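Practice record 12: protein with SN-glycerol-1-phosphate.
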Amino acid sequence: HVYYTQLIKMLSENRKALAILIDPEKFIPTKSESFLKSIPKDTTHLFVGGSTVPKDQTEATVTALKNYTTLPIFIFPGDYTQITETADGLLFLSLLSGRNPEYLIGQQIKGASKLKDSALEIIPTGYILIEGGNDSAVAKVSGTNPMPQNAIEAIVNTALAGQLLGAKLIYLEAGSGAKRYVSPAIVSEVKKTLRIPLIVGGGIKTEAQKQEIYNAGADMIVMGTAFEQ
Ligand code: 1GP
């Protein structure tokens, strides 16, 4: 687990992680070089994925990016068809906030045989969808309800259950393009109870917002929409 170990080490040295999310459905592979020049200097990871990605587009995106970067590329899959060996790793997500078995365990079973002998670094990740003030693609595609931002205790317990199930990361997601990002109060309460790294994404656009969420306790922030061309 090279990349996970690197992440733990960087966090132990009080450095924060920043993942830039690329949605293959919207990305033009020939623009990879200019895109990579436009992302922040403090970027530590690239995530590639989306809720609805046409077949083979994830692989084309990863292959194109690989020509111009040494940053680790992780698949952040909307479904099992997005698995590609061209990436460095994969967030093996389970949508813990929802009550749709297809996204809790169904997609994971569909991907399992493909991942059995994979060289991808597979990181079990508890994925928690939180109300972001507008309809999110994750809610729509998964057919699940996001957790309300005022349900802090339920969110904390969901994250804790994920950790107890063996997740190596917890991801608090407000949805791509969220009007309202996950509140600092939620981030700090979840962080207090976890001993695994905490990822926060959805609706974070500015440097000030990013710092606010880091200060609340996020170990990694994911930004997508802010850098879409
Ligand atoms: C979405 O958390 C990510 O899955 C990033 O969201 O596109 O709003 O930055 P944004």
